[in-house]
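Bumping my old thread because nobody answered last time. Still need a sequence for this structure:
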């Protein structure tokens, strides 16, 4: 009887580990995830990878064009241990090598730096080390508890980060709402504790709040000075809801002071249709004001090989023009002009190759923008962005719900 109970408890812990997308975040259980799975003795091994080879062309006075690759690979290994599950996970990206000059063009995108200057109308590459983490999961009475520790990892803040979000699987570019929703997905010295009492998950994290610097091959580190907490509800296999909040200590290189971030999101999977609605609000001490971002995102897979994708965003942008670089928070706070930008993206992908080991497809998407007319002199009246891409994904798509 004891052996049976331990086996059941270990299976429950293993199920939770397999459901996590990055850090301890989760897509709906019914959402597909492409992977290769292996069993080596007591170890369960999973390998995920995705690569886009992109050609971007942004029109207008502040547009640009570039050929680059966005990519990542994740490997995880888990095994039963002491009635629970030990999981080890690493996620790597070659974007420091495949995105030249430390950025790719993306109109109205802001956040982080390159060559000591603010990135404006451009998106930074991910760090080579996106995640290095260990996690232990164990049953707690009728629930399940876990401890997650990562020199590089994803704290409990926001929805699933866009590289791993099911609704963003066919979009190679970062959302404009990235820095209001999920930019903490690469943080340093992360410790998360959580408990699952189905269908509710409660978790809290402590971590280093400064965003990665522009030197993308190393591990920055830093003292633990920030926190977050998240409540997640998954009432069915198709639905995920989360609310989270956190305080980040000096996350930006060019802005002193703290930020408070609050997010809420709903993700839904209906067979082969994945959709996310999300809202994020960031309070910046340096400006003493809130910045809001709203995202709606969806991908529909039909005839197995065809994908239609869409993304709509409304986001407040306060970094479209360079700020003076400060070291302390001014008193009174520094005023800043905020512009509300709307972006509408529509795309299509078709698979050319589908095997048990992966899929290769080609696609394109286009984005149109709406913004205050005062910006016409900087962006033109009707700027647009177009990305054409080749996409490769490792493994066979399956849902967490069907894996368990």
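Sorry it took so long. Here it is:
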């Amino acid at each position: 009887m004891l052996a049976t109970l331990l086996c059941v408890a270990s299976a429950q812990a293993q199920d939770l580990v397999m459901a996590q997308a990055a850090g301890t975040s989760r897509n709906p259980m019914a959402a597909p995830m492409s992977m290769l799975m292996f069993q080596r003795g007591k170890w369960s091994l999973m390998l995920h990878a995705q690569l886009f080879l992109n050609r971007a062309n942004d029109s207008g006075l502040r547009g640009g064009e570039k050929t680059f690759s966005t990519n990542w690979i994740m490997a995880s290994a888990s095994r039963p241990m002491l009635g629970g599950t030990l999981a080890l996970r690493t996620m790597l990206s070659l974007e420091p090598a495949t995105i030249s000059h430390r950025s790719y063009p993306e109109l109205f995108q802001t956040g982080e730096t390159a060559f000591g200057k603010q990135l404006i109308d451009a998106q930074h590459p991910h760090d080579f080390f996106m995640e290095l983490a260990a996690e232990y999961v164990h049953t707690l009475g009728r629930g399940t508890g876990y401890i997650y520790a990562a020199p590089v990892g994803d704290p409990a803040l926001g929805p699933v980060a866009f590289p791993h979000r099911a609704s963003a699987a066919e979009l190679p570019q970062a959302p404009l709402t990235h820095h209001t929703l999920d930019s903490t997905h690469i943080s340093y010295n992360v410790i998360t504790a959580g408990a699952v009492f189905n269908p509710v998950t409660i978790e809290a994290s402590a971590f280093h709040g400064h965003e990665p610097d522009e030197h993308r091959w190393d591990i920055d580190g830093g003292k633990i000075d920030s926190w977050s907490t998240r409540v997640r509800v998954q009432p069915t296999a198709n639905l995920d809801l989360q609310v989270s909040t956190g305080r980040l200590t000096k996350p930006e290189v060019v802005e002193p002071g703290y930020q408070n971030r609050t997010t809420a999101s709903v993700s839904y999977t209906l067979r082969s249709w994945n959709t996310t609605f999300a809202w994020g609000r960031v309070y910046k001490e340096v400006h003493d004001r809130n910045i809001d971002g709203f995202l709606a995102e969806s991908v529909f897979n039909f005839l197995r090989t065809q994908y239609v994708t869409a993304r709509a965003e409304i986001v407040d942008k306060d970094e479209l023009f360079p700020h003076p670089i400060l070291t302390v928070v001014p008193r009174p706070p520094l005023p800043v002009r905020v512009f509300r930008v709307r972006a509408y993206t529509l795309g299509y992908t078709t698979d050319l190759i589908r095997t048990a080991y992966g899929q290769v497809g080609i696609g394109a998407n286009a984005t149109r923008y709406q913004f205050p007319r005062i910006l016409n002199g900087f962006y033109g009246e009707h700027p647009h962005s177009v990305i054409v891409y080749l996409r490769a994904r490792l493994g066979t798509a399956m849902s967490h719900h069907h894996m368990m």
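Confidence is low (pLDDT under 50) at residues 1-9. Let me know if any region looks off to you.
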